[in-house]
Fold this protein.
Amino acid sequence: MFPARVLAGASLALAILALSGCSSPWGCTDTTAERGEAGVRVQVEDTSGRSLGVTAEVVDWRLEPHPQVPSEGDKVYFHYRFGGADEISGPAVDACAVDRERVALGCKTVYSSEAFGPDGDLTGDDWLTVEHPEQVAGVLLIPNDQSYDRRTCEQDSKDGGGTHPPEPAGVGDQL
């Protein structure tokens, strides 16, 4: 049997290790935020669902061949705007071309830092490639900020964990 002093010392050492984060594989947890409601104009939200005070909006869209690869046929060309965003470290949202039932036909993440304009009203444009462009009924934005990518427990069990943005939207997702 171990003397009481050794047991007390071992308990203290375990407590110190737990507090220092050395036992964090037992305490590190990853969660994924719920995907917000997609729309033409959305309030960008953080991983807890709180508004960041930034709006994102699809200004217009159309089908046309990309000027650099016209032989590939029609692509979805769209303009977007971020209102109230920081042009250096602002948010990013997923943009998706959808059919009449709001099923994603093609998606990509657009970043406010890649847009330009004065006074926090940043505009940009981009292209979406879809297999059947004739099915496109609109372009929607998903409000979840995709710009913050904290480390996961698997990547860093001591400093990782927490709530992460939802998985980026993809072809076939119902929005």
Remarks:
- The mean pLDDT is 84.
- Residues 4-20 form the longest helix (17 residues).
- The helical segments are 4-20.
